[in-house]
Amino acid sequence: MSSSPGAGKGLGADAGVEKENQIVPVSD
To answer: What is the pTM of this model?
Structure first.
């Protein structure tokens, strides 16, 4: 998940992981 930018946009769990990787989810 963290290795895939934008993976799981809008999914709470993935959104949290992406935020930690400095990736801003489009649809929170």
So the answer is: 0.14
